[in-house]
């Protein structure tokens, strides 16, 4: 893995100023997968976040035969997938694919361009059980042959003749919806996907695919219809801004009693999280494409109850920073994590910093106290959002907090330390061999 990355945070400074919200991680990853469906032209994606998951996705795209360029200063990716087609390259190798969950979003391109796929591993945040059965069952209902090589832990897919079909999801899976739409886009006939996800990133991916020539209707309604087309063409698209990045920075401003302008953030993308933060005492004002966030440092945060659920419910990715924020509130907050059973690993780390959090299965009670400050400590990020939540805790803790592994933060937050430093925080990113 090479470099060990750590975030070192010294608490006590309110965040003030302007921050730029990155492009959405959970939109760019499916779009890189979608760009590989284009048999002609060069795709140009703009507002790309400079994050490790994007780097891994581009390595994977090159591995299967695409030509890619990542112009980081311009936050622009150029992808030429016109020469994809060598079945020998229809493999997602574990050493790249197991490092990010979005690797599963390459399967439709492999099925359509190479007629087969071998998946040797799919990664992502370590959040407890994260199955991919909806994806594989959906591909099978479109006519693919999906088999498991249990000994090697591989999934093999053969897709010589796909045809449209009626699909459903047991829960409205975010990447499941995107993957089945991408698979259906080049599949002859009509495909209907019931109980589809409503996340804004799903709608952005639909807009991108539509521009490429796909025929998709019903985005945002829960029932999506896709009429298969013969080919898709490369286009240019600007990725929507990242609502989780915006939510994390808003909560950091709230935690420190600060006042920030978040360029590119949209209140309506926050769903229920907006209302929960307002109930805690956070003030929002949307001024065009800039979201102004402030919290009166003299009034303590109020405790909150939150249950995670798919959009527009409270996003599970924002539950970790909310837990850290709730440690500062005046009283008991109640959190129910209904999507990922592994997210509460954060509680032990916050308790090391002096928080009082009790966990019972998928429920947690946070005994908040505005008068007992958190203490800096060496803490472990178990996943991307735990990492961001611990940086948040460090911003309000007495003394120094060191968060490792910083690679997990870098998976999903672009230039995190420098953006926070620009808001006045004392945060540095260190990497050592
Ligand atoms: C790259 C990306 O977009 N990641 C996001 C996406 O992950 P991802 O798309 O993987 O999350 P899903 O919406 O699929 O997962 C929702 C729930 O369904 C379960 N499930 C999902 C698929 C499946 O085949 N079988 C199954 O049982 C999962 O274990 C989980 O409990 O949505 C999550 C939920 O908003 C976010 O936390 C992730 O940041
Ligand atoms: C769970 C997350 O990401 P992934 O699905 O890529 O693991 C996340 O963004 O918090």
Folded structure, characterized:
The protein is of the alpha/beta class. It folds into two domains: 4-22 and 241-432, Enolpyruvate transferase domain (UDP-n-acetylglucosamine1-carboxyvinyl-transferase, Chain), CATH 3.65.10.10; 25-238, Enolpyruvate transferase domain (UDP-n-acetylglucosamine1-carboxyvinyl-transferase, Chain), CATH 3.65.10. It contains 14 helices and 26 strands. A hairpin with a 5-residue loop joins strand 13 and strand 14. Helix 1 (25-35) runs parallel beside helix 2 and helix 8 (243-255) packs parallel to helix 12. The longest helix has 13 residues, at 200-212. Phosphoenolpyruvate binds at residues 100-102, 124-125, 127, 317, 384-385, 412. Residues 9-419 form the Enolpyruvate transferase domain. Its EC number is 2.5.1.7.
């Amino acid at each position: 893995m090479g470099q060990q990355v750590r975030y070192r945070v010294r608490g006590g400074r309110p965040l003030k100023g302007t921050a730029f919200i990155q492009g959405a991680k959970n939109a760019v990853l499916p779009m890189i997968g979608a760009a590989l469906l284009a048999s002609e032209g060069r795709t140009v994606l703009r507002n790309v976040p400079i994050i490790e998951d994007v780097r891994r996705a581009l390595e994977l795209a090159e591995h299967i035969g695409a030509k890619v360029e990542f112009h980081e200063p311009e936050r622009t990716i150029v992808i030429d997938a016109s020469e994809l087609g060598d079945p020998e390259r229809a493999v997602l190798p574990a050493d790249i694919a197991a490092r990010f969950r979005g690797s599963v979003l390459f399967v439709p391109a492999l099925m359509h361009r190479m007629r087969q796929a071998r998946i040797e591993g799919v990664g992502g945040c370590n959040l407890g059980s994260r199955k991919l059965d909806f994806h594989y069952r959906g591909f099978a209902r479109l006519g693919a042959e999906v088999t498991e090589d249990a000994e090697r832990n591989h999934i093999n897919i053969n897709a010589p003749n796909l045809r449209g079909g009626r699909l459903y999801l047991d829960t409205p899976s975010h990447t499941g919806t995107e993957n089945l739409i991408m698979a259906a886009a080049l599949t002859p006939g009509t495909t209907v996907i019931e109980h589809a996800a409503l996340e804004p990133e799903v709608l952005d991916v639909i807009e991108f695919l539509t521009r490429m020539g796909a025929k998709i209707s019903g985005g945002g309604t829960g029932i999506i219809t896709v009429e298969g087309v013969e080919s898709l063409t490369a286009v240019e698209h600007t990725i929507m801004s990242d609502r989780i990045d915006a939510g994390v920075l808003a909560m950091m401003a709230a935690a420190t009693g600060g006042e920030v302008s978040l360029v590119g953030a949209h209140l309506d993308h926050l769903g229920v999280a907006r209302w929960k933060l307002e109930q805690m005492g956070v003030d929002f004002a949307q001024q065009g494409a800039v979201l102004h966030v402030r919290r009166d440092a003299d009034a303590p945060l109020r405790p909150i109850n939150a249950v995670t659920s798919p959009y527009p419910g409270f996003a599970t990715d924002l539950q970790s920073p909310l837990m850290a924020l709730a440690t500062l509130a005046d009283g008991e907050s109640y959190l129910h994590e209904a999507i990922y059973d592994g997210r509460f690993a954060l509680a032990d780390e916050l308790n090391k910093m002096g928080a009082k959090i009790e966990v019972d299965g998928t429920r947690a009670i946070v005994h908040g106290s505005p008068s007992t400050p958190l203490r800096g400590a060496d803490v472990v990020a178990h996943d991307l959002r735990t990492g961001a939540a611990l940086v948040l805790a460090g911003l309000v803790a007495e003394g120094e907090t060191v968060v490792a592994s910083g690679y997990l933060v870098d998976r999903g937050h672009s230039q995190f330390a420098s953006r926070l430093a620009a808001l006045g925080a004392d945060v540095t990113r260190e990497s050592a061999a």
